[in-house]
Write a structure and sequence with these properties.
The chain is about 55% helix and about 15% strand. By secondary structure, the protein is α/β, with parallel strands linked by helices. The structure holds thymidine-5'-phosphate.
């Protein structure tokens, strides 16, 4: 398949949104067709599923239900947005993908990595990101940033220990997938982080002869 699939991962408040916007601008200026999207979400159906997931009134939601809802939103997202864009040779930048489920549901909620991978096989098939940027930010720093912004949703309002497990999970996963996941210190300035990401992208474009 042609095209390029880029994902952005990290704990809440790590600055993914800002970096996605900057990267989009950079790639558009280079003349690429770029689609920015997010998970859970990215399609009308997936955005509806997102509302159910993050609704603070849904406190009785089981961990397995949550894992399936993320995978369901993802299945629609892959089919409706990601694969068609890649097939046309475009670049997809997704705010989160399967790594989020592995880390949040698999590790932090203790659903288990194997179960998460199995569920997600039905949602994504063989699709894997070409490159993933993990914006590494300790949970205490991330939550501090979020609290300054707005009211916390169901996931953000989780106990500190949950966010610590998410952070540890990302660190573990990124050590295991060194070839795909590029770790970036999210305490750096916006510009420095952007430059790190651009370096990673340009290496990849060169390697793929794009
Ligand atoms: P966002 O705030 O980055 O848009 O993500 C929404 C929340 O959903 C965030 O707390 C991370 C969480 N999440 C999971 O737990 N599993 C997943 O598979 C995805 C995509 C997100």
């Amino acid at each position: 398949m042609s095209g390029l699939f880029i994902t952005m991962e990290g704990t809440d408040g790590a600055g993914k949104t800002t970096q996605i916007r900057l990267l989009e601008e950079y790639l558009l200026n280079k003349g690429f067709k770029v689609v920015c999207t997010r998970e859970p979400g990215g399609t009308p159906i997936s955005e509806k599923i997102r509302e159910i997931i993050i609704d603070k009134n849904n406190s009785e939601m089981t961990d397995i239900t949550e894992a399936f809802l993320y995978a369901a939103a993802r299945a629609q997202h892959v089919d409706e947005v990601i694969l068609p864009t890649l097939k046309e040779g475009g670049i997809v930048i997704s705010d989160r993908f399967v790594d989020s489920s592995v880390v949040y549901q698999g590790f932090a909620r203790s659903v288990g990595e194997r179960l998460i991978k199995n569920i997600n096989k039905y949602a994504v098939g063989e699709l894997e990101p070409d490159i993933t940027f993990f914006l590494k930010l300790k949970p205490e720093d991330g939550l501090k940033r979020k609290k300054e912004q707005a009211e916390l949703d169901r996931l953000e309002a989780e106990k500190f220990s949950f966010h610590q497990r998410v952070y540890d999970g990302y660190v573990r996963l990124s050590k295991r997938c060194k070839n795909r996941i590029q770790v970036i210190d999210a305490l750096k300035s916006v510009e420095e982080i952007h430059n790190d990401i651009v370096r990673g992208i340009n290496n990849l474009l060169e390697k793929n002869g794009i």
